[in-house]
Every structure is written in C-alpha cells, then in structure tokens.
User: What shape does this take?
Amino acid sequence: MGAWGPGLYSDDVTEDVRGIYVDKLHRGKNGEQASKEMIAEFEWACSDEDDAPVFWFAMADMQWNYGRLQEEVKKKALYYLDDMKNLQRWEHENPKMAEKRKQVLNELRKKLNTLQPSEKKVSQYRLYHCQWKVGDMYAYQLEGEYAKERGLNGKYLLFYKIAESIWWPGHVIPVVYIKLTENNEIPKTREELEKLEYIQASVLNSNDFSDKFIIDAHGKWKNRDFEADEYGYLSIYRFQLISTSKKSIPKKLSYIGNFLNLTPPDKEFIMEIKENIRPIDWKKVEEDVLTKYFLYNKRESVIYGSLDR
Assistant: This one.
C-alpha cells in the first residue's frame, strides 16, 4: 500500500500533498490557483486506483483546515470515502490496522460535512536574493577556536562568486570557490590571488564514472570527460553559501573587488545538478570550510591513507 500507518498522512502521497499545498499558499497562491496546480501536478496520482483516494482525502482535509474547501474537491473525497475499495485493501493487506483506518476515514467524512472555518491567513515567504556579482570576492578573517587549533588564526578565507543557485524555498544564493591566504594579509592584486590554492569541497570515486558518463540535471545520460587526481578521485571545489537574508551574511566580510575569469581549479569535476553542490552555513563557516581543507587539500581523510601509493 505504500503506507506506514493508518493515519491520514501516513503515506508518501498525502505527505507530499500536505507539504506542497501549504507551500503554494505561502507563495501567494489563492485557494483556486493552488488547487488547480495541485491537481495538474498530481495527475499521476489522480489516475491511479490506489493513489487517487488518498490524494483527494488529503486535498479535502488540507483545504478544510485552511478554510478553502472547494465543492468539487469535497465531492471527490466523499466519493472515495463511500467507495469501499480503499478500506477493503486495508482489510486484505493489513487487517490489524484496518479498524483504525476505518475510524480515520469516518472522522474525515464527519469533518468534511461540517462547516469549515473561515479562510486562514497564510504569510508569504520573504525570499532573499544575494546581490553579489559574478567575479566579486570577499575576505573573511579566521579567528574561531578551530582555526586557532589548526594554526590558521588570522588568515583569510576568500569567497569568489562564480554562479548562483536556489536555496529552498526560493532564496537566490552565491555559488563560490574558496581560497585560503598564506598569511594574515588580504591579497591586493589578481596575481597574488592567482597564486593561492582553492579549498576542495569533496571528492567522488572515479571508478563510479569509469565509462565517462554522468546524469545531467534533466536525468539524461551525458558524455563527460574528466581527470582524476593521483588517488583516483574526482575533485569538487564548488560551495553554496546559504544566504537567506542580509542579516545571515557576516558583517565582518571585507569586499576585495571584482575579478572576472580567475583561473579555475585544476582537474575540477563540476557537478551537473546545483542542488548537489556542497552547502555551507554562515554560522559554521570556519569549521566547515577548514574541515574540508584538511580532509582533502591536506589529505587527512582516511580515503587517502587506505590506498597504497
């Protein structure tokens, strides 16, 4: 059945309906718009004998809860509540929970036949668009405990914006390379910046891509050339800086300037799907970035020690 319990939201379909419907309201959709989009997006569920009932149960329940129950949605839900096939599946596949499921559906029927509450006001998302430009570079001085422990206190992380990404529910955030200064001074010229190493975000085992194929963002197979490091790993360098408001970005950042077209990292493997780029929370930026630095740049990860080179 794909359900883990008798509750109304104890399966993947209804959980998705609940989350996506509320998300649409937070994005400013009115009840009619949200309902129309939900039915279109869940067409696969509406046309499935097993998923259609639970879809309409969840839709009707959520609309009632938010004071937006539409008559056609109510009719669909009541139709399936009166149709015994859904409950018969429970009696056949999970008889121990069938009685509880019957109670849940009876409660829903009773609820839908009572006067729904007034339309509930739903606050809209306040989405942030970080205004950094491609090529902008910012310096962040290390002064946390982890930096002190590792002998890097006073040095700088340099954040270099190369692209943008979307962070749920729609914030536009920077995709960056990160460099580490050699001393406690901020570089002033392009030449000085070029000499600094990039911090590695993660690795992938090149054996997983032995046929030189990966899946692109649309789920299609796509030919890609790549070059592994001396240990056979693919080096990933890109980070996402989670920036959900202006306040979330540290005030201690110093703007260095705009440096378009700096030389990218050598042998970089670029992730096709932006959502797979390593996210960094500003609240833990020092420890998270430096941990990656020591794991991959300094080869402290166990993956390197386990190989005989």
